[in-house]
Amino acid sequence: MPDAPMSGTTYFAPAKVNLGLSVRAVRADGYHDLHTLMVPLQVGDDLTVAPAPALTLEVYGADLPTGDGNLVYRAARAYLDAAGTDRGAHLVLHKRLPLASGLGGGSSDAATTLMALARVYPAGVDLHAIARTLGADVPFFLLGRAAVAEGTGDLLTPLPVPRTPLVLVNPGVEVSARDAYRWLDAEETTTPPLDIDEVLATLADGRPVPYTNALQGPVAARHAPVRDALAALGSAGLRSPLMSGSGSTCFALAASEDAAHAAAQAIAVQHPAWWVHATCTL
User: What EC number(s) would the UniProt record show (predicted)?
Assistant: First the structure.
């Protein structure tokens, strides 16, 4: 599907990866207490925003709804209502990221929508309060930098993460977070907290990174393409392959940006149907 003509102001909505994801417990409300290191990336979606008499949304690059079924639309509606304006906005979302992939694309798009409309219609609105109603990852994308996330993902502690080249591989499988956590719950297991200091140290010095993803086992057991993606990353000479979030995107670390691009090219040749991208942490 071709891109739409550009108008208004365009904002970048970055993807993220989880450099480890521990599920500490199931809460009384059915959600999960997490311990994860989330890092934004240089790859993501684009959102163009222009003031308009009414709220409208166009989507290019993916077959997504353009009304209340779209998180961008709901974020915009929530902001406009909170701002008390009778004006709207014309939004054009250019999807570059695969859907239901563990990269936080929808949450990032929603956070970017909130920040963009706060510039278009300044009103002193509490963006974080709105973000918490939209999804667990949306507050992280409002923060806009690497952070340890705890609780349901809304308790954020920013910290510096060394710039790290990596390769993303999505094997074309959509995995809902709801299913991934349900499969984990069926195993009745929890995982210990991440050793954040050791993760950061190994990111910097090139050793294998001691991170795990509690959701990787249940998801990979049910989706062979996830196992294939992890194996392909390891075979490409990359370091510490891991699934991001609830999947199905997997990633591994590279010694340099050139090494990341070379590995991504090799994987893409071997698996032309996969979405493969070399990028860096922000």
Answer: 2.7.1.148
